[in-house]
Protein 1
Amino acid sequence: MELGYVGLGNMGGALARRLLVSRRLRAFDLRLEAVQDMAEAGAQPAQSLEALGQACEAVLLCLPTSNEVREAIFGEGGLAAGMAPGGIIVDQTTGDPNATRVMAAELAERGLELIDAPVSGGPHGALAGTIAIMAGGTEAQFARMRATFEAISPNVFHCGDVGAGHAMKLVNNVIAASVRAATFEAVAMGVKNGLSLAACAEVLAKGSARSYTTEFTLPRLVDGSGKSNFALELMLKDVRLATQLGVDSGAPMFMANVARNLFQQAVNEHGGAEDVNELIHTVERNADVKVVGN
């Protein structure tokens, strides 16, 4: 199967590199330097999205939002203009499940298929082959792409029909974001009452409050290596999508909406492009206490 990859940022680039361990791969990104880096890793550069579609039976994408996915597929000179009937597009973006279902229906009218397969575990997990892949599509579509997914990681899960992978990713990310927000606020309270950040990191990683935030993020804040390579604006986007899905489906999300407002405050204060762990400085200001460096 001829494979293509679109979107070579932190996440997409890591996924593409993992595929290159065992697969031939054509690659495209609007940033020429990203394409060149991938070419040096062994990928064949594509000159355009349409050309990539013409050359590939399956194309995977990892882009910031579903809006960019739509443009890459249906825009002038996009993938849909080049792919032959029977081709399949795999969206690994953290996207909007409803938008994904609409795009899948539009592509079906052209004889093309679209499934979703977002991931969780960060670029380091992608490169290490340990990342979780959450797929949404028919049984036949999942079977068709399973070997490709397993070339990235053995942790592959078929979550349901198209859109289900994105729904699962939103469940994952809104939980992770809410836990991060609650942990930062609680630690700030603890520090204000005489605890150190180091003590909080050590104890919370071993108790019933343990989470990714306590096991990985807090120790990084302690030793000064707190960058996560994930932008505040992307986390806010994921929480916003999750809470909107709750509204659309009549599932109240009281706690998640509180987290969304806190992340919005952090974006307003620090800028959306800043690392997600800048949230700790918003929490510090709200609590009038210095947490990092304490």
Note: The two ends are 54 Å apart (CA to CA).
Protein 2
Amino acid sequence: MQALCRKFTLSVVFLLLLQVGFSQYNFSKVDDWLGNNLKELGGRAVLVIYKDGKLVYSKTENELSSRQKRIGKFIAKRKGKDADELMQDFTINTRQRIASCSKWLSAALVMTFVDEGKLNIDDTVGKFLPIMTANGKGHIKIGQCLSHLTGIKSGSLKESLTAMKEMNNMDDAIAVIAQQPMEGEPGKTFHYSNNGLQIAAAVIEKISGKDFEALFAERIAKPCNMINSDFGKVKVPLPAGGAWSTAQDYLNFLQMILQEGKFNGKQILSKQSVIAMQQNRIAKDVVIISSPAEAGNWGYGFGEWVMDDVSGEKRSDAVTSPGLFGSFPWVDNKKQYTGFLMTFNINHKGRNERYKELKKLVDETLVTK
């Protein structure tokens, strides 16, 4: 009985602390935005905001339209899944595909090898992958792989996902990439795709002797307490878009980035690596072959977009890595907070403007108590 009372008391204290954190700010405009945009977000959304060492905002909205329910049932039938399960309400712990939000996770994983001195961003991929050299691509650098500057022609994320299902191992995937034609000079040609991160993933597998999924669990997921995050546990993971996560898990990762590589007192990534990831690698003379509409005119670092107009070695004030299905994570270094919007909707029309509008509302809320 005493143990039960103690547990109840702790729960009450936690809820009171949570309410105190939330009451510091008036998020009514953010609430309105979430409700007004819910249909365009796919009918389900989770939004969480973290600042000053605590969760200051957490909101879930679930209101699928009749059309969205019909589409959901059609997709469930086509995939042989239970419709109710596929369309269940979102919570902070709902596990979903996060598409290109995966890139941030993968780039961070690669940078842990840089921190250990086992890899350098100026290393050439041919040093680790002879097949790249044999196909005239050995001179491409690791840093170029992390910033979509390999110059290798690539298909869409959907095509990459389909192709990976036919691969038996990472070597098979790299063999296919190695034989793709070049479409521009490495470092001077930007093509937002899977190729670069797949190559980087293969490199760290060669260095460590471990598979990518195990490395992610060991170096990022477990230290950041991301208990429901992985890359699908498939034969050949897609580092650029194959991850699954939850709003809570991904927020843990964002906290680590905001805190310059530290989570729960442990240094996961060095401050130098976090800063290097947040520097714009797209110089003015770079040719843009392909870039998603939701990125607008943002620049790109390692695994993440830079949201302000920075160049050279200057660190971006705000960074993000939105995904194909609408999820939008961001870190604001200047205002010292982070947020994550989890959604599931394939329609990308108006996303960039919507993301900017949401972030602006959150920014304004956090500076006026």
Note: The chain has one domain: 96-367.
Protein 3
Amino acid sequence: MNHKLPPLTTLRVFKAAAHSLSFTEAAKELNVTQAAVSHQIKSLETFLDHPLFKRGNRSLELTPGGSKLLPYVDQAFSVLQSGIEAIMEDENKNTLTVTVLPSFASRWLVPRLGLFIKAHPDIDFRLAPSRGLTNFKREKIDLAIRYGSGQYTGLHSIHLLDESIYPVCSPKIMAGPHPLSCSSDLKHHVLLHDEGHGDWRKWLLAAKADGVDASKGPVYTDSSMAVQSAIEGDGVALARSQLVKSDIHRGLLVKPFDIVQPSRFAYYLVYPDDQPATLAMLAFMEWIQEQVNEESQYEDRT
């Protein structure tokens, strides 16, 4: 037998009041007056022909009937929310959100990103620079590019680029009073530090540099800031190769020494292994791997 359902508004008000056990708090949550909440509850009770709340002078309690109804109302709204989200996700299947380290975004990805946008005008692309780890379950992120070991539990991991570390500086320093002829000449210059990536002590030890204090010099929390400071001629940065190749090619930076330290980390494209890749994700994965391959072929020719 089919039964009429009460108005959805009355159920929404009941849900808010039942969880807070306060018409006042429910009114605040729903942005209506307390009188409106009271009216909706009375309307629902009349429809059901059953009291839902025990009203005291300063207290509010659910009746047995109200307690019985609440989990069903909660479940109903949860199902409705899931259905709405499913429709929205289907409508936005051509959206793509990629999170990436700010340094890699500004120095490597953004200069190339216009090519992807032009090739895929139907994809609504969003770039979300972040230094933090991505929680795919809580955040609306499709893909992440991270600098690390590549071993991430629960994630597909696609290797993109290896990394090496070496000093870079502005051509102005090489033309100045203390050009960098050998590693010990670094004692005449400010060392620019990149927090968390690159260790001047290790490089100076490998280069057998004498008289250079690796503890001095400004520390930048983002690699791109250290690189930009080097471009401005503020000092010598220990940089990641993928972030400075373009600047070296354009003559904004020079690599004064041949001593290079391979990094134990690399760049990886990651996404949850329980999440099927959308067409937009597949398009970006194919495009970025093409960019990496083209760069590798160019370096092999040069």
Note: The chain has three domains: 8-91, 95-157+269-301, 163-264.
Protein 4
Amino acid sequence: MDIGDVEKLVAMNKAFKLLRERQKENLKRYPEIKSIAKKIRGVRERSTGNKELLSESIENFERRGFDVYLAKNKEDALKAITELLEGERVVAKSKSNVAKEISLREELESRGVEVVETDIGDRIIQILNEDPSHPTGPAAHLSVRMIAEKLSNHFKTEIVPSAENIVELLREDIKKRVENAAVGITGANAITREGAVVVVHNEGNIYEVMHRPKRWIILTGIDKVYPSLEDAVAAAKVQSFFATGEMLPSFTEIISGNAKTADIEKKLIKSGSPEEISLILLDNGRSEISASEFKEILYCLGCGNCVVNCPAHSVYGNRFPGGRFALIDAIKGDENILRFCLSCKKCKKNCPLEIDIPRMISNLREGSELYNFLISHIMWLNERLKVELLKVAFRFQ
């Protein structure tokens, strides 16, 4: 561990503390969020793995003019996206955890396609070649000083270390980079049985990405389907609160088809961008998980509150992604990562849907619970001591 690692941990934990404080304060204003979350838990139980619901949703999307692709795995999804790009050399992209799951940006870049991340945090991660530390706040582990210093090297000009200056610089950079992008790629917070896509965001960038002139590609998991638009919007409110501390995101986009007009003889005529909308629904093991003892993990809304409250992640950083994300890694074969888990159960306690991550981790771990508890705590205490000593040595507050 060096000074950079310590600075990242300090910055990340400060950011997470700020989020927890904002949640606590706004919970007084929006106490109903807990009852909404309880309702959504029931919706997720009924929807996850529901093949009939998924089939009906796909039928309605196609009826509304979406091109729908079912991707069995990463390779299928990448093949579909590559074909849809049709030789495009620049693509505008917004934040998407499913895109990260299939390493979309890296795969497209290896094929000679310039992918421009349009979320500020993701753009920082992209330029600095960093790993994200949180699903909705990927650059939370980077201090303003560190970002400014590294961006100064990248852009070959001195950047004043202030959040306002950095955001302004990156906004201009993104605007120039996406000028020639005819295709945009986003994720989706939810899709619904009626054939609607729900996307929430705070920066306003998704509006620009989804309205590229040629095509909008939506990449999401088959587990994101909801019975109704009302359920999807309620879930988005829960996700927003626990991801940012605010009850509502700045923007909630609800899309159920291409732009069209019926002002002439009530004939529906396409009018506006994009010309085509493609929806790629990724399985990538979700069907198997939904039929297993780990089905509950697919109820996840992706708010990242399990990460924010994970004491192991707070000292190990990306070596232990925390909560749901560590469990997914283990389910996919990296069971060794669970040695860092403290069995503190804070992930379940702080999950808005009370997903029992501790139970699933316990089922995957080898050895007795007592042994795992003792070893993980000894490792954690040792690591935390090193971090605290290095903070003193490097004079971090």
Note: The CA atoms of residues 190 and 224 lie 5 Å apart.
